[in-house]
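Worked Example 4.2. Consider the chain below.
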Amino acid sequence: MSDSNVVDADSKTKEMTVEKVSEQITVRRNKLSMLRDAGRAYPNTWRTDASSADIHAKYGEYEKEALDDLAVEVSVAGRMIAHRVMGKSSFIKFQDADGQLQLFLNRDVLGGAEIYNPTKKWDLGDLIGAKGVLFVTKTGELSVKVSHIEMVSKCLRPLPEKWHGLSDIETRYRQRYVDLMVSPESRDTFRTRSKVVSLLRRGLEDRGFMEVETPMLQNQAGGAAARPFVTHHNALDMELFLRIAPELYLKRLLVGGFNRVFEINRNFRNEGSDATHNPEFTMVEFYQAYADFYDAMDTTEGLIRSIADGLGMTHVTWEGVDIDLTQSFKRIRMDEAVFEHRPDLRGHANDKALLATVCLQENPSVKPLITWKAGHYLLELFETLVEPKLEQPTFITHYPVDVSPLARRNNEDDTVTDRFELFVAGREIANGFSELNDPDDQRERFIAQAQAKEAGDVEATGVDEDYLRALEFAMPPAAGVGIGVDRLVMMLTEQHSIRDVLLFPHMRPETS
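Applying the procedure from the previous section yields the following structure tokens:
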């Protein structure tokens, strides 16, 4: 079969599917019209007193006679996912937020054909409410013998074929509401995400950190190297930026006297989307006065290990790597990590010309800016030679000053900073450092950033005069860390794409 014939066949299949769906929607809408005429469309009167999970947990092990003696009455609700009609009786299986349960309907128990017969025409996907007594069927299945049942909300669109889920990945992301209906694995992922955030918050609070909120609309983007989203405030007639990081505001709080603060919230960066990037993402940033980057590494490692413990995990398999979360995380300087792959560079970490030559040899696609210094080329070499090979949790430390505008210089080597990044399975999870609290040094770094911006670096930031003024009031020595919550969840749920851990990832508009 030629390619054109395959395309034609696919197009005809899609047309038939669309036509079939359209017919089903028409039939369902006709049923809705009858509900409207009877005054029973979309009521808000149903209340539940039990979930499927609670019922199974409490009564799943009861024998038939023992459960009959208890005569447990329940009021439940959920989405109908299976319906088997056998004359005067029928079985409905519904799904709620916690699981599934079977309902048994009998015409005489419900009060006659006038009540029972309409239920036979209900559609899969309809939300229904039922009251009745728990019992065990002849096949041993815990069920509800229904005495009253209602349509709670009419489903106008057919569910995915045979309740097997959404095979099209893009549709899963666009229609997450359907994905969650039909995929237990997806629901489990987002339950785990919720637990991770809860454990993260608890871990920081247990360590004496206070949760705060800082502005998302900022008059100057700062705290990271990233291209911001720009917007306009009409009333004040001023340009504003969606924040790329909360860092500079959180450190202002250290100046104000709060010694341990954290924020879990959204950042926005006007960059492309791929397996680990989404324009809108969640981070936790925490800052501790009278601490350095070694303390920050200890806290970061402890937090991740305590979250894994809270989830009952010791190992995860991510990107084909068996990750042992019980072992101490490795620590190595960035230059040493590069030297392990290019021993000829040892002793030349500040030789810009040599590093530039080797960098272009290893990665010809690099496009250096005129403002690049030795540290920029060393970072490029690290990202090319080392980063993809960092499988087990590893802290890379002592980043060059040239690429670390907010980090404190190292006491022994002022060409590097007391900074680290944590990598797992070749992916960055966290970034932290001893904070730069010298206002004069910080001004020089800001000016260098501004010059890079003028030279065409769209990720460089400018000079934040108010932040410099805050430093002039004296910020205590401190350390801070930013952890990518989405990537952390990816690791702990063994997902390959950030879109699988975001309920509603950003997508291109649908085409007609």
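Confidence is low (pLDDT under 50) at residues 1-7. The radius of gyration is 29 Å. Compare this with Example 4.1 before moving on.
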